[in-house]
Design a protein that fits this description.
about 450 residues, alpha/beta, 5-stranded antiparallel β-sheet, 10 helices, 19 strands
Length: about 450
């Protein structure tokens, strides 16, 4: 009689982990980028006011990605601006006052001021005399100018620039590690690099991410961890992932295992003014590509920037519905671009109202869940938010649900051995519903528009 054949059970599919806090609660971050790209020197960051954080909080948002510029902090090599650091401190104080967590973003656009933008200081910009021709009508194309590409190569490979960049992040982490508003550090916005002759863009992006950006992230992670053992480290791929190209980033070494994958979510056609095409499959392709890295390395995802320039086109309502649903499937949060008052990319108009279609971003969500989440969903058409979880055994943890303002208010129902001090939310008011539960029990929370 033949011996029975043993079949191995299939390996479980990789799961993207969620962000957690020091209590073990599952976190969701939802908010906006906050920036001042216009003012420099003495006036740097002056466009950012307390109103930004008060208004974001009033809409139920709990997260801000704050753009900080190396060229403001260290305009002259080795001379760090104490005034700039104090301005960051003041902004963080406003964020803390309104319950907003802050990601410090080391921002660059087209490398920096040597090319008419912001980011890497001029003293750290090395071009080997290669040409640069400005193209203000298509600024992203400037990344492919020879001088800009060579400047990235020197940043990644010159040891003195490596040390200078690491020193900046060590300084920022040492200064702000204990500020209660600080959640993490985003090392370099939309890193790019130099294409080799005959190389197509996806191939170049994967090589640059693997051979240059990954080592940079690891250098900067080590610099931050030398002074800050607690806050999260956010790492970005090139923006080419927006075209559905999987990243070539490698593993980021962190003994605390607090690394976040932070891609951006832009489509080249929509950035050029085109409407969203629901049948084109772009969001599906992006999701398939962008989830490969976090599944492979077991890190959570927070989308660092997203949102089109033109929100009034016929299909933009569908875009926001599809994009929000997609990010909820794999992400722990997002920061839209950008919280300002006016037109273009601005989240709100001059009167402080969320602009057309952007109002969809203000929806109920579980900011922190003290337990293992079973279901977490919101139906905009029905105005119903549902959360079900097994309450944590860790003492003292509280589940927090963020509710944006609603014209008629909200009604809260809690099931299981759980209780909440909030059962009704007044019209026009944002609220945080706090739920406490007997550890180990199944809890259900349903929130309905009145």
């Amino acid at each position: 009689m033949a011996a029975p054949v043993a079949y191995a059970a299939p390996a479980p599919a990789p799961v993207i982990p969620k962000l957690t806090d020091d209590q073990g609660r599952v976190l969701t971050l939802r908010g906006w980028n906050v920036e001042d790209k216009t003012h420099r020197g003495e006036n740097a960051l002056s466009a950012i006011t307390e109103k930004h954080f008060r208004d974001m909080s009033a809409q139920g948002f709990n997260f801000a990605r704050l753009l900080v510029f190396w060229d403001d902090l260290e305009a002259k090599r080795g001379q760090y601006s104490e005034k700039y650091l104090r301005k960051i401190d003041r902004i963080l104080d406003w964020a803390q006052k309104y319950g907003v967590k802050v990601l410090l973003d080391g921002h660059q656009d087209v490398f920096g001021p040597a090319f008419g933008h912001r980011g890497i200081p001029e003293w750290a910009t090395r071009t080997d005399g290669l040409p640069f021709t400005p193209n203000p009508d298509d600024w992203f194309s400037e990344y492919f100018q020879p001088a800009v590409q060579r400047a990235f190569t020197h940043l990644y490979e010159d040891q003195d620039l490596q040390r200078a960049q690491a020193a900046v992040w060590r300084l920022l982490a040492d200064r702000f590690e204990d500020h209660p508003a600080v959640f993490g550090y985003d090392f370099l916005n939309e890193p790019m690099g130099e294409l080799k002759e005959g190389e197509d863009l996806p191939t170049a992006a994967r090589r640059i991410e693997r051979d240059q950006i990954t080592p940079m992230h690891n250098r900067l992670a080590a610099a931050v961890r030398s002074v800050d053992r607690d806050n999260w480290l956010f790492v970005e791929p090139t923006p080419i992932v927006g075209e559905g190209v999987p990243t070539g980033l490698g593993r980021i070494k962190d003994p605390k295992r607090k690394v976040v994958y932070a891609p951006h979510f832009y489509n080249a056609g929509m950035e050029a003014g085109a409407d969203y095409d629901p049948k084109a499959g772009w969001i599906e392709a992006y999701e398939a590509a962008v989830t490969q890295y976090p599944k492979r390395y077991g890190v959570p995802v927070v989308v660092g920037e997203w949102g089109p320039l033109n929100n009034d086109l016929p299909n933009m309502g569908s875009f926001y519905r599809d994009a929000l649903a997609s990010m909820a499937r794999y992400g722990s949060g997002w920061a839209g671009y950008v919280w300002c008052y006016g037109g273009g990319y601005c989240a709100v108009d001059a009167g402080g109202r969320l602009r057309t279609n952007k109002e969809q971003t203000a929806a109920p969500y579980a900011a922190g869940v003290a337990g293992r989440v079973h279901t977490d969903s919101y139906s905009p058409s029905k105005g119903v938010y549902s959360l079900a979880y097994e309450a944590s055994w860790r003492g003292g943890a509280t589940t927090e649900i963020s509710l944006p303002p609603s014209a008629k208010g909200w009604r809260v129902s809690v099931g299981g051995w759980a209780w909440s001090g909030t059962r009704e939310v007044a019209p026009g008011k944002a609220a945080t519903v706090r739920v406490r539960a007997v550890p180990g029990v199944e809890v259900s929370v349903v929130v309905r528009k009145r």
